[in-house]
Every structure is written in C-alpha cells, then in structure tokens.
Amino acid sequence: MIINRYEVIEKSQVIVLKLGLEETEIKKLEEDILSLPDAQNKITNVKANMSTWNLWDQIDIKPLMDKIEPIIENNSIITFNKRVGEKIEDNPTIFNNIWSAVYKNGDYTVPHMHMPAIGSFVYYVKAEGDTSPLIFSCSGFEVQASTDTLVIFPGYMTHEVPPLLSDELRIVIAGNFSRYS
To answer: Which pTM was predicted?
Structure first.
C-alpha cells in the first residue's frame, strides 16, 4: 500500500474589529479578572494565569457577550458552517466555554487549535504598548493585540502567542462556540 501525503494550505477568514465597549465596562472587566485566582496552574496551552472554563460563573460578562454574539451570528458562522455543510438557520450558536487569561512578562501560549469547536474568539481587555501578537501558525498571519479588539477565527486554525516581553499586563477573554441542531 502506498500512502501519499500532501501539505495543503487552505484559505480561512479571520475577523478583527474594535468592539466599542465603553471604557468603564472594559475597566470593570479588567478589575474583575484581576480579582480571580489562577484556576489552571499553567497546565493548559496557555502558560499564564487563567480562570475556570466557565467565566460566566465567576464574573459578569453579559455586556461583553451581548456585543460579541451578534457579530458572530452575522459575520463568521456563515463562513464556518459553509465549510462543514450545515444549514446555519436551523442551528443556534452555543458558547461551549469562555475563560480569561492574564499574561505577565514571560507568559505565552503554545501552538494549538480548538477543534471540535466551529469557531473561537479572543477579546483584548487590556493590551497596550509592545505586547505579543496572536499568531496563526500555518500562515504566519499576525494580529497585533490592542485593547477593545475582538478576533474571531475558525476552531481548526492553529494559533499561538509568543512570550510577553513587557511589564504591561495582557488581559484577554477567549472562548469557543459551536452550532448544534
């Protein structure tokens, strides 16, 4: 038996936008996240302080999610679901998990993906100055982190964050979403 292997690079969409949360809402998220203990002890792909996987049980993220959910519904799911052949209008978006991470100098995230989630998002609660980018490993595409920026991408895209080389904290809320009938 002969097994042939081919490296194929497929085009994917990454959505990047300024979300437009009020400064007071962003500051409240930052304070709430900084009050949380490290629940993961750096055993995940994220080598930084992390919340539990169900951030909604720990702090109020409803104002944030009220802004993120319609963007996902109206922009990204259509593209992602066409890739897997689902009928999008019959399946609501489900947020499987949402967590926060606080990166300090030297913290990083190893290359990983979020399968079987249809998509993932990262919202930058605090990312100022010379902070580490979000890198999509296969393409080398980088998103420079900045406060109030939302990034949405397919769950199958391998991504990583190089070590933070700054004393400024980098604070994110991230999550995975799927669609089920």
So the answer is: 0.89
In a domain, 37, yes or no: yes
Across all residues in the chain, what is the average pLDDT? 90
As for how many domains the chain has, the answer is: 1
| pLDDT class of 139 with cuts at 50, 70, 90 | confident
Q: How far apart are CA 122 and CA 175, in angstroms?
A: 7
Distance separating alpha carbons of residues 20 and 5, to the nearest angstrom: 45
Total count of residues recorded for the chain:
181
Q: Is residue 3 part of a domain?
A: no
Exposure string of 102-137, with b = 16+ CB inside 10 Å and e = fewer, is: bbeeebbbeeebbeebbbbbbbbbbbeeebbebbbe
- d(CA 140, CA 136) in angstroms, rounded, equals 5
Residue 167 domain-assigned?
A: yes
Residue 175 lies in a domain: yes
Task: Please state the rounded mean pLDDT for residues 101-105.
Answer: 97
110 compared with 180, residue with greater pLDDT: 110
DSSP bridge partners of 121: 152, 175
CATH assignment at residue 82: 2.60.120.620
